[in-house]
Each structure stands twice: as C-alpha cells, then as structure tokens.
Amino acid sequence: MEIRRLFDCIYYQLENFPLEKSFTYKSGNDWKSYSTQEIVDKANAMSRGLLKLGVQPGDKIGVITYQNRGEWIIMDTAISQIGAINVPVYPTISPAEYVYIFNDAEIKYAVVGKDDLVAKVQKAQPDIPSLKGIYSFEHDKGVPHWETLMEADEALQPKVEELKAAVNPMELATLIYTSGTTGNPKGVMLSHNNIISNTDGVKELLPVVAGDRVLSFLPICHIFERVATYSYVRNGVEIYQTGTDNLGGEDGDLRAVAPHLFSTVPRLLEKVYEKIYNKGLELTGLKKKLFFWALSLTDDYDVQNPNSGLKYSIADKLIFSKWREALGGNIKGILTGAAACPVKMMRVFSAAGIPIREGYGLTESSPGIAVSYWKEGGAMMGTVGPALPNVEIEIEEDDNYGPGEGEILAAGPNIMMGYYNKPEATAETLFEKDGKTWLRTGDIGKFLTDSKGRKFLKITDRKKELLKTSGGKYVAPTPIENKLKENFMVEQVMVVGEKQKFVSAIITPAQEVLEDWCKNNGVDCTDMSVACKDPKVMAVYQEAINELNPNFSHIEQIKKFVLIPDAWEPTKADGSDAELTPTMKLKRRVIRKKYEKEIAEIYNV
User: 559 or 401: whose pLDDT is higher?
Assistant: First the structure.
C-alpha cells in the first residue's frame, strides 16, 4: 500500500510487518505492550467514539502527556483518520500558555496523561470557551477515562472508512505550537504530506531493519520524535517508550531494552559522557592510565576516516566495549537533534563504536532539512550532514558573515502550510521563488565540501541572535556557547555584550560535576551560591575560558564571566518565566532580564 497520510503508517505495518510488540511503554516499573493489530483496532474504536461524541473533520483535539505511550499513537491515528486535527501540547508550559494555545486552536476536547495534567487543564478550562470535555489516560483523575470514549459497536465503522478515504494528504494534519523565545507561541500548520515526506526522506537512512528495537524518550509532541516514531513504524521496528529518569545504570531502561537505535538531544549525551569521565577519574593505577589513554585516541577521530589498528583494537576491547554494554550492547547508532551537538561528543562516542549522527531542521520544516546518516559518505565532522533527498537548501549570502555564509533557505514537500491565524508571520517566514515555497529558517550556515565533492551543511549561528558591540562589531554567540559547553563542568552558558566594549558570559555549572570537584579540592559546596564565588572554582572556569578563547577572534573572546548557581529549566514550579524553551533553547530576553544586576556588575554600569 502507498503511505500518504499519517494513519497509513500503522496500516502499512499491519500489512507488511505485523508485530506482537509494536509499541511498549514503561508504566511504573512494568512494561505494557500493544500489538500492531491492537493499535489499529483501538484506533478504529476511538474514531467511532469521537464521531458519536460529535467530533467533525477539522475539529481540534489536544493530547498532552509527560511520557510517550502507546495510547498517544492510538489517539493520533484515531483523530487523523476522521479528518480531525491533533494538537499535541507540551506538558510543562505555563497555565497562561495552556489558555492561549487552547483558545487559539479552539480545542474542543483534551486527552491528557498522568500526574498534574488534568488539574492544569481543568484550571484553564473556565477561560477556554471551546473546550467541551477532558479525558484522561489514567484512572481516578476525576474525569472520564479515555477508554470510555471508545465505541465497540461497529455500526459507525463505514462512516470512519468514508472519512478516512476522504482525507487529502495536502490537508492539515496537526497544529504544533512552537515555544519560541519571545512572545506567544505560533501554531505551525503541518499537512499529512509535510510529515510523510519527511519520513520518506529518512526511512532509508536509519540503521535499522524490521524486528529491531528502538528506545523513544524524547517528547513525541515534538515533531522530531514524532517523525522518528512514524519512520520506525514504517520500518517495522519495535518501539519502547519511556522517560529520562531511569535510562542508565545496571537496572536502567537502556540495558533492559538493549535498543539498536534511539534519538536524543545533545545535553543527555553530555551527561552520559560526564558520568563516564568521572568514573575514569575514580579509577587508580593502570586502570586509570588505560582509560585516559583510550580516551585520548578519540581526539583525532574522523567519521570519514574511522580509527583502526592495534592501539584502537586494544582500547576497544578494554574500554569502549564497556561503554556499549552500558547502552545495552546492541547499539547501531544514535540520532541527535533539537540543538547543536558538540563535535567532541560526536567524536568521542563514534570513536567508541557508538556512531552519533546529527539532524537539523525546524518544526516549520516537519522537521528535517539535513541529516547525517550512517552509510559511507553520510556524515562529516562539525556539520549536520547533507540535505535530505527531497529537500533543497540555499544559502542567502550576507556581508555580515564570512564568504559563502548566510541565512539557510529550504524548499521541499516538508515546508509547513503556514502559521495558524498569523498571516503576517507566515509572510515573513515563507516566500515563493521559481514556483516553490521557500522557508527562511533564521539560522546562519554554509556548505562544506569533502574530498569527494560531497556537500555538507554547517550551522554557524542564529540570524536574530547576533549581538553588536559598542565598537560596531557583530558577534555570533551560539558558536562560542556551544564550544564552551563542550567542557563537562559547564551546564549552560549565554554570551552577552550587546552595545558593550567586550563579550562576557553567564555560566551555570554542571552541579554534580562541580560538587565532585569541590570535594576533591577542599572547597565547601554545601551552598552552591558561595562555591560559585570561591577563587579556586573561579580559577577552574577561567582556565576553561582560556582554552576556549584562542578558537575565536579577539572581539569574540570572553573577557569576563559570572557563575550562576541556578539551574536553567524549561518550566518553573513557581510559575515564573523559564530560562529555556521546551526544546532547551535559551530564552535570551528572559535570561538578560533575570540577571541584569549581574550583567551590570560585569560592565560596571
């Protein structure tokens, strides 16, 4: 069968790779599985129930969960195959954002997961005139259980089939609200064709075959994990869904599932590396020497010229094989996205036989624009790979940047329909050229070419995040921040210096790593705010900056910094402004406002 709509994916799996464990998710300490047939049957029962409830094609239904689960896919299938619109919502957003999104989308019903989600939506409901009802995936939440919606009587199934056949691939399939770093979130309108074209582009690039296992823990409400999930479904791969709380360790989900592939964000990889590095520091004698000798072999690893020879074989047998065992022992690859992956992470893990590849895109591009892949010639260090097979990329060169460098433009079947209810924002982001719709990504990049003439995209900055010093020089903060975050003692960093004589940095330390360092160096860390001002601690971070600065021009070098003991989060329990978006991007305006006193002290103003 031909796959043209989102719901076609599960029917394709049923026809070609029916699985007993199509989706398995962690529920408490237990795993709950759905077969391909069960997903289809429950989705049809839910579609019938939604029709009985009065849901019409074009109606919006919100789905909110903290953790990925098989029921999410059942709902997505059930909603989309009757022409309704799934509006996945981040669980961690503020109450005000719930109200805004639900009203903007005119959501009629919401189906939500565990913990406080029902209470959050109930609190917002009086301010949402369109919201008729709330259902929960969990029992005993004070609202009807989601299964009460399912209609066992198949009398409505012919209507389901009629609506399914009428769904046009070019029609709206989902509204995804991008968090944004300023202002209200925008609803990105993605059609079935937008998303399916992206699964078309990546399907053959994934290093998995039917029957393999993948682990899914990034939020499926994010288009990155959603497209990965539908690509897995098309490949007949068993999907194990969990959270990030219990991934590592002897009893962790990585060992339990022993996946062949998973997608992640760079920060999780950095935390894994920090733990590996710290364990190395705890070793003594010959074992410690062997560990750091093996680690040194990764320094010059090149994905296009992989390590080989006797030294590497010894390091692999004694050290790197244990890393792979900690990830379950079957890993064929890891795909990272949503933020820039430090080259050091890609180098270290890939050299250890855990090949990391990076993807790049936006929600507005469904999301893939370029992706590194595992076959020969599919990756180049420091880049996000070549353009996807069905995507075109152009660089709009700009005198503010280097030769061949400028804003990244993308065209293809994956480019969004536009922003919901925001024609002006749509017109600013999309434009027509040569009979194609092009997307202005807002990212700055350039192409690098390897020895065989293959082109790879390198992301160098965000267009709107350039800062201008008082001397009139433009500085791109992102490359500086990404380089400094390669130091395992740094959790987050934001470069500042707008209209100032020099560039500075606000740094949040990796607290566990700093605590270990303090204990080993006689520094009291019971109060992190005090520890962050300790001369010994400041000296360690100054050393990190001294190592960083030679990589950049004089005007880009960090002259001063301040250490902040706070943890920057995508949500705050007290309802205050979070410093990060749900996809872990810096909210620069929020951070500048929150630390305006510290910034003023840096510049003595």
Answer: 559
- Residues 378, 304: Cα–Cα separation, whole Å: 9
pLDDT (0 to 100) of residue 575:
61
Alpha helices in 521-572 (DSSP H): 528-531, 535-548
Measured between alpha carbons, how far apart are the two ends of the chain, in Å?
67
Cα 100 to Cα 185: distance, rounded to the nearest angstrom:
8
> Where are the chain's structural domains?
8-167+204-257, 265-354, 466-603
Write out the two tokens for 360: 């790049």
pLDDT attached to residue 141: 81
> pLDDT by residue (tens digit) across 159-210?
999 999 999 999 999 999 986 555 688 999 999 999 999 999 898 899 999 9
**How do 186-191 and 418-419 pair as beta strands?**
antiparallel
Instruction: Give the helix/strand (H/E) hosting 60.
Output: strand 60-64
Taking only the tens place, the pLDDT of each residue in 332-380 is 999 998 777 888 889 999 999 999 999 999 999 999 999 999 998 899 9
Would you state the structure tokens that stand for residue 375, as one six-digit string? 């076959």
Contacts 24+ apart (CB under 8 A), 426-430: 429/364
User: How high is the mean pLDDT of the chain?
Assistant: 91
* pLDDT interval class at 469 (50, 70, 90): confident
Q: Which residue has the tokens 């239904």?
A: 61
If we measure between CA atoms, which residue out of 311, 301, 349 comes closest to residue 327?
A: 349
Overall size of the chain counted in residues: 605
Question: What would the pLDDT profile of 17-47 be if each residue is shown by its tens digit?
Answer: 999 999 999 888 889 999 999 999 999 999 9
Taking the domain 466-603, which CATH number applies?
A: 3.30.300.30
Please give the CATH number for the structural domain made up of 8-167+204-257: 3.40.50.12780
CA distance 511 to 513: 5
Q: Do residues 417 and 172 touch, judged by C-beta distance below 8 A?
A: yes
Model confidence, pTM: 0.83
Cα–Cα distance between 224 and 543 in angstroms, integer? 36
Q: What angle do CA 582, 586, 587 make, to 5 degrees?
A: 85
Amino acid at 421: N
Are 31 and 24 within 8 A, CB to CB?
yes
Question: What are residue 160's DSSP bridge partners?
Answer: none
Residue 482 in tokens: 């990404």
